[in-house]
Specification:
Elements lengths: L15 E3 L8 H5 L4 E3 L5 E3 L6 H13 L5 E3 L3
Antiparallel strand pairs: 1-4, 2-3
């Protein structure tokens, strides 16, 4: 489970985030490319928060698919 206290520095503010457990597999970025990206350090981050139901569904799919549970939803 992702840890809010371990959010990586690249995330934009909002409901979804990626924490320090990320292994850089890029599954989230390929699942929801409008919302996730990979930094130069190899860690994923949230580059944009969803603003509609379709975007939320993609982010939730990425969250549920993360092999190390590094994506969190803090409910903001």
């Amino acid at each position: 489970m992702a840890d809010k206290a371990e959010k990586n520095e690249f995330n934009v503010a909002g409901k979804y985030y990626v924490d320090s457990q990320c292994i850089g597999c890029a599954l989230c970025a390929s699942t929801a490319e409008d919302f996730f990206a990979i930094s130069d350090t190899g860690c994923a981050y949230v580059k944009a928060q969803p603003s509609d139901d379709a975007g939320v569904a993609l982010c939730n799919e990425a969250l549920e698919s993360c092999p190390v549970q590094a994506i969190g939803d803090d409910g903001e």
